[in-house]
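Tip: read the tokens left to right.
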């Protein structure tokens, strides 16, 4: 059985999905991103000596702010009430990277995965922006959905 794409109308054009008939449920999502950095940047972040300031704190707030703007950035994404967004940034010395995890929660008729993705993406871009003066050879990668819960499609774990 062929699965119907939900963002395509009968004429093949993209459209915003009508979620008005969907059940309101509590929904959560957790996303992950990684920024690989040089040893020099890693040590500057770790020792809080980056000239622009505290990279991890500023990236955290950038991610929270971005999550709240998701529907303004992603054209077909609904504007939903966000109950909670949290972002954790950790330094991984073995991989010389910054690991970013976001958690987002809502009680709504549609999911909150895009808000979780937007949060880690903006946080990763902020790490890059704050550290690019030291070395531009950072790599933003490994952005993925780690889990989601709620809604018609149920739970998902990467």
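Filled-in amino acids:
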């Amino acid at each position: 059985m062929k699965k119907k794409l939900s963002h395509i109308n009968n004429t093949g054009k993209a459209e915003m999905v009508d979620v008005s008939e969907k059940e309101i449920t509590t929904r959560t999502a957790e996303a992950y991103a990684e920024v690989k950095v040089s040893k020099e940047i890693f040590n500057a972040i770790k020792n809080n000596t980056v000239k622009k300031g505290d990279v991890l704190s500023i990236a955290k707030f950038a991610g929270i702010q971005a999550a709240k703007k998701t529907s303004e950035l992603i054209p077909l994404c609904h504007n939903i009430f966000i109950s909670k967004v949290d972002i954790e940034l950790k330094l991984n010395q073995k991989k010389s990277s910054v690991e970013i995890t976001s958690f987002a929660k809502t009680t709504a008729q549609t999911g909150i995965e895009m808000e979780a993705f937007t949060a880690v993406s903006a946080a990763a871009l902020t790490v890059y922006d704050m550290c690019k003066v030291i070395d531009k050879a950072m790599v933003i990668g490994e952005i993925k959905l780690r889990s989601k819960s709620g809604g018609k499609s149920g739970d998902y774990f990467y």
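The chain has a mean pLDDT of 94. DSSP finds four helices and five strands in the chain.
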